[in-house]
Amino acid sequence: MPRSTHSRPSPALIHGVHGKRNKPNEACTACHADSRAAFELPSHHPLREGKMSCSSCHNPHSATEFMLKTRMRKADLCYTCHQDKEGPFIFEHPPVQEDCSLCHTPHGSVANNLLTANEPTLCLQCHDFHFHAGYRASDSLELEIGGIERENPFGPEAYQIAYTTNCTQCHARIHGSDTPCQTTTEWGEGTTQ
Fold first, then answer.
1. Residues 6 or more apart in contact with residue 100 via CB below 8 angstroms
2. Which residues, at least 6 apart from 8, have a Cβ–Cβ distance to it below 8 Å?
3. Tens-place pLDDT, residues 56-78
4. Which of 44, 55, 70, 120 could form a disulfide with 108 if both were Cys (CB 3.0 to 4.6 A apart)?
């Protein structure tokens, strides 16, 4: 059987058996430079601030996938710190129960909240724009939407700006909610607060 070409550091290098002891994060980042770089991005778990370490999520002596701390699902590992995202909710956002990494990256991201992409790009990978996202209003100060006259003090592009910036402006409870959405087309499943 061919040997792996990936060279592993010796245990003495990692643990500092006969000399200077390495800090746990230093031992990990010596080989995992990509993870170390991710923790330098604007949105990151508080590793560099000293509020957690690599061993908060990983067990370096484990044989599980990604050397996770336990044999639980990745989402369950996230819920050990983020209990408010777990639910159960009456109206659940299915990706939340499946795998947090569908929307979040575990080490660091340029997008807020460790998201894999900024809004609305992330949301549009699965969802369509609402009908009003492409709506251009008239130049008058009033317009009709759904049979109701609405004020439009911000001009004809106001709806495009409002509905194509951040989905969470209206859909605030994206992980799930017990409060039904106020729209009739989604039968309460719009995950709004």
1. 74, 75, 78, 106
2. none
3. 888 888 766 667 776 677 788 88
4. 44
